[in-house]
Amino acid sequence: MITGLPIVSGLFKDFSSSATISKRAFPPMMIHVATYSIRTFGDPVLRQVTSDVDNIDESVLRLVEDMIETMNEAPGVGLAATQVGVQKRLFVYDIGDGPSVVLNGRITESSGEWIYEEGCLSVPGLYWPITRPNHVLLEGIDLNGNEIKLEASELLGRVFQHEIDHLDGVLLIERLDPDQHKQAMKILRSQALTPDQETARRRLSGRG
Ligand SMILES: [Zn+2]
Questions:
Q1: Which of 7, 138, 146, 199 minimizes the number of CB atoms within 10 Å of its CB?
Q2: How far apart are the CA of 30 and the centre of ligand 1, in A?
Q3: Cα separation of 137 and 122, whole Å?
């Protein structure tokens, strides 16, 4: 049985964020956060494995803020650092309870099975029913460096698995069955960027 919206990650979100709306109410000079352009399929950075964050300094805090803003604007329910071209093991998420961040996260237990219509901000516009474990235990640290253990099922469990995959250089395409994978590659090849689109993308990504 496949459930309906909201669709997961890098995962799209179909509800609006009140935090984003209130931030936008300020004049532009009041906004200190910046947004990144989200890297899409074919960008080699999405295949790279991230390194743990050793030092939670100002630059990490800034990165987290900017990633939350980028996720809200997309909009998505999760965003991994690799999706904005940063090889640090951290991701942000918000399934409607407010934004959170997990640093150096790893899934240490999983069980059950759940099929869900999954999408990815790095593979825009495409969704597939994907089977993954339903329940997971995610271990990592928070922004204060404290150890955290988070148990999650269904949508949140799916977001955690999807984002941890990103941090290991794995895209949801690799979670498809052989037939789905074949069809997906056909579509993605036909969508390959034209030179004009590539120029536009490079110009936009200058913001990050
Ligand atoms: Zn994704």
A1: 146
A2: 30
A3: 25
